[in-house]
Amino acid sequence: MMIVMTPGASEAEIEAVRAKLETTGVHVAVMPGELTTAIGAIGDPEGVRQLSLEGMAGVDRVVPISRPYKLASSELSHHEPSVFDIGGRTVGGGSTFALIAGPCTVETREQTLGVARAVKAAGASMLRGGAFKPRTSPFAFSGLGVEGLKILAEAREETGLPVVTELLNGQHADAIAEYADVVQIGARNMQNYALLEVAGKLGKPVLLKRGLSSSLDELLMAADYILKEGTEEVMLCERGIRTFETATRFTLDLGAVPWLKLHTHLPVIVDPSHAAGDRRLVQPMSAAAAAVGADGIIVEVHEDPEAALCDGPQALWASDFPQYVADVSAHAKLLGRVLA
Ligand code: PEP
Ligand code: MN
């Protein structure tokens, strides 16, 4: 941390800051400048943060030097990208591309098995589908619950595809742990810290979606909540954020992908479906995600999107999915990645 004093700070004020910093055991370096004095505090930034130095006489500002996330960071100890094996599929590490596909929501056994067979045949690596759905309106269809999880398990049984499904509420943790291969944390719950800790205790890989209005620092600190519980396999998901633009459902922040690659060792997955809100945009946004170095995509697919109970307008037709896979995998290949 760096403490910048005001130009008029007195020697006594500088001394008081130094003395207070020294109580935390950090190494203190006072650096007088032409106009202002800066005081460097080298050591545990959390202890320094807790001193609330901003309120002391003569202090202008306190500037953090190191980044606030620790376990998710690639700066501290984990320099190499993490690579996970999820049911035989490799995620992360730069040479593979994960294609997670399936319906927004498990509606019926027939609908889910139908989509699962179609995405498997086209080369998907995992099956997505929500059994517990976060809905903006409490009167909208909110999923089949445990019944939906059983249908997903049947689809896994038949296709061999690992299942990605959302943990919406800590009360469902046992059921999710029983049926899911990857535990999804939805965008609306990215900062539900108690739920993140529950997810981190399940011993399963977690797909953490970026909050609708969350910064990337906040996303990585949310990942720290899961990682600190012992789960090493956390995948981050850029799924679009709220901006002034209303033409698309959300604004897909593709700059997030290379930024995250610089600052974290965790794999990055892109969700073009929820960002676009319109299936016509899904293929180009997926190609772009592959081009900026995403480790994979999570995409919504339905055999009859017009009859879907949730997110139909953004779901790809299952009959179009083989062409979509060919196109996206060609873009991933340009970066040396193969579908896995
Ligand atoms: C989903 O993937 O099913 C979903 C609800 O997405 P998000 O949490 O990103 O809105
Ligand atoms: Mn959806």
Describe, in plain words, how this protein is organized in 3D.
The chain is an alpha/beta fold and 340 residues long. It contains 11 helices and 16 strands. The chain folds into 2 domains: 2-63, Alpha-Beta Plaits, CATH 3.30.70.1140; 84-339, Aldolase class I (TIM Barrel), CATH 3.20.20.70. Helix content is 33%, strand content 20%. Helix 3 runs parallel beside helix 4 (146-159), helix 6 crosses helix 7 (216-227) and helix 10 (279-291) runs parallel beside helix 11. Bound molecules: phosphoenolpyruvate and manganese (II) ion. Phosphoenolpyruvate (PEP) binds next to loops.
Across the major sheet, the strand order is: 7-8-9-10-11-12-13-14
Integer tally of domains: 2
According to DSSP, the number of beta strands is 16
Q: How far is it from the N-terminal to the C-terminal residue, by CA?
A: 43 Å
Q: Quick check: average pLDDT?
A: 97
Catalogue the ligands.
Answer: phosphoenolpyruvate, manganese (II) ion
Q: What is the CATH first-level class name of the largest domain?
A: Alpha Beta
Helix content: 25-40%
Pick out the low-confidence regions.
none
Oligomer: single chain
* Category from helices, strands and their pairing: alpha/beta
- Count of helical regions: 11
